[in-house]
Amino acid sequence: MLKKIVFVLGLLVSSIYAGSLNIAVAANVSYAIDELIAKFNETNPDTKVQVTLGSSGKLTAQIKNGAPYQIFMAANMKFPEALYKEGVAITKPLVYAQGSLAMLSDKKLDFTQGIKLITKENIGKIAIANPQTAPYGTAALEAIKKAGFYDEVKSKFVYAESITQTVAYALTAADVGFIAKSSLYSPKMKAYKENEHWAEVDAKLYTPIDQGIVIIKNASENTEAKAFYDFMLSDKAKAIFRKFGYLVP
């Protein structure tokens, strides 16, 4: 009788988790992830994908502490490579997309000046993502330093926890912000015009932002995780990433 109860409970637990997939996703992908999941579900309709968004550094810390994610889509290669070296990830990190930086403001500014715009007197606060945990923040800091303006503007920095929060700061608490270009493809951003409210940052000023994906070791036998991983590296996913302003390998 006891064995039968245990068997039934096992089936119940299996049914609860069957068809579910937990993924940790860098905040910059938040604008594209719904469309990516919808396309994935066209061929995997029974898989319910649960998404946790955040900075890559914080998500990495959660994964190391046992957070039940099966897939990690980071904003750069550093964090997934660290997980792979430590045996926490079971697949070697691969680039699923390459991100790029843009500057954004709620105000109409002369963005034709390029990054030099941040040195102007009318720019009192500059929003960037925390460079310790957010790769786009690291890239923004690199671009500012390479342009030669760091010492001049560092007192203006307002740090956000993630690139999504940086967008919010750029439109409220700061005069301009360094954001992921992908955020500009959100339907909410249609009112903002290039060279008036935003402009791309010269790609020569920062290291290319290769975004990496890995499968976490707790998903070693999870066929749905493997299916989602393969999809993110497929031509169908690449087409969606291009639509949202990313470059793809």
Q: Would you kindly provide a written description of the structure presented here, covering whatever features stand out?
A:
By secondary structure, the protein is an alpha/beta fold. The protein folds into 2 domains: 2-98 and 208-243, Periplasmic binding protein-like II (D-Maltodextrin-Binding Protein, domain 2, 3-Layer(aba) Sandwich); 100-205, Periplasmic binding protein-like II (D-Maltodextrin-Binding Protein, domain 2, 3-Layer(aba) Sandwich). It is built from 9 helices and 10 strands. The protein has helices at 2-17, 33-43, 56-64, 78-85, 135-147, 150-153, 163-170, 223-232, 235-243; strands at 20-26, 48-54, 71-73, 94-99, 101-104, 126-129, 157-160, 176-180, 198-200, 209-215. Helix 2 (33-43) runs antiparallel to helix 9.
List the keywords.
alpha/beta, D-Maltodextrin-Binding Protein, domain 2, 2 domains, five-stranded mixed beta sheet, 9 helices, 35% helix
Low-pLDDT runs of 5+ residues are 2-17
According to CATH, the fold-level topology of the largest domain is D-Maltodextrin-Binding Protein, domain 2
User: What is the fourth-level CATH superfamily of the largest domain?
Assistant: Periplasmic binding protein-like II
Which CATH C-level class of the largest domain is it?
Alpha Beta
